[in-house]
Amino acid sequence: MTASPDWTRPDRPYAIAHRGASAYAPDNTLEAFRIASALGAEIWEVDIRISSDGQIIAFHDKILSDGRKISDTSFAEILAHTTAENRPCPLLRDVVAEAAMLGTGIYADIKDTRATLPVLHMLRDHGITRAILGAFDREAAKLLAEADSPYPRSVLVPLGAEPFAYAQGADVIHLCWEHMDRPQDTLTDALFERAFAQGQRFAIWHEEDPERMAAIRTRPVIGICSDRPELVNQPGRGLRFQTVCHRGANKFAPENTLPALECALAAGFDYIECDLHHTADDEIVIHHDATLERTTNGAGPISDHTLAELRALDAGGWFSPHFAGTPVPTLTEVLNLLHRYDGRAYLELKSAPPAPVWQAVCAAGLQDRVFFWSFDHAKLQALRALAPQANIMARRQDYPTLADTLADLAPQIVEFTLPEGTGDFSAVRAAGASVMLAAMAGDAGTLAQIVAAAPDLANVDHPFALARLVRADG
């Protein structure tokens, strides 16, 4: 076995982006790898094959969608085919160069054993220090050992195989056991003790379930693969203030859709912000605009359409082909998402009336985990009359004085913008309300002003960038 470098003993598991952030872009593409780093992944898992003309590529399957084998097809033909499918296959050297530029590690899943030594040389040539080289074929591990590889060698262990026997001689035992009902139960203290005694570490199957992830995140493993790398290290958790993600993680998935909202919650951010409209058949859906044109393939006012008609629309294709077919979500789906991630929500009442919204929140038992606002002041008045205990936000800019702001509707949260300054923050807190600062720009200067203002909540369009700044600032 290779002598383990210090980085192989992390304080917490590394977020290993499974084929890149493949929940947000086509797998094994440069786009997926770049998004993975923006979501906080420290390592990219890359599948490696060789084309018929000897080009080393990042591609998972043995065959293209038209049935041609990768090993029998030239790279030019592979690239043309995958580009037509909106998932252009990159050369591995371009992936490695990108990783070197971003300071990201590489987990090389070598599908074609012929690529083993070229991959080793490529990683060395690009100065990649944090890398794991692995394969299901144990012959690859032997080749790496003979070449005196400085990188830990991994063997991927299929379900049903005895891990220590199957991965004999490997530095990293990668358990590919995601298809078990409760794979987290296999991670016993005895399993780790035996591995550590032999100088070995474990890497874990790709995991996207928050309950299972919570169980394995605390185990002493080198890393966890995930299509959602933000779910592994949760960059939004433990910041100095609570973060409200405006329309969800809208830089990585289409705004106000379940993928964007789930991304924000999976990353550990405190709140998602959603805009609520009512349909022609009196259902409640999530969508920002009053009309459909900007973010769906539909047209006209939302309130002129039934729920069934809205659900048949594509609310994701405008953002990326990867999200084509994403539906307009319902309030019920969002409330279920809050339960799934133990999250919170800022619900903005657009055309949606307060009574059915409050009824749905109460039915879900989430009264204490949401707050409300609306441009239509009459809606907030109706909500306060209906539900004295509801959490309501007020915007400081809507009132002549702070006293007026606090007197009207007895808000639990008062929102400020950066130009309004921080002078009233202490008075808001003294009145028993929380301070929220809204700033949608994502430049470093704006984000630094948010951090310096030290609000109780920050309502932002760039939560991941804000989290990186907070952590870099210590």
From TrEMBL:
One of its GO terms (biological process) is lipid metabolic process. Residues 13-236, 241-470 form the GP-PDE domain. Signal peptide: none annotated. One of its GO terms (molecular function) is phosphoric diester hydrolase activity. PROSITE patterns: GP_PDE. PANTHER family: GLYCEROPHOSPHODIESTER PHOSPHODIESTERASE (PTHR46211:SF14), GLYCEROPHOSPHORYL DIESTER PHOSPHODIESTERASE (PTHR46211). This is Glycerophosphoryl diester phosphodiesterase. It comes from Marinovum algicola.
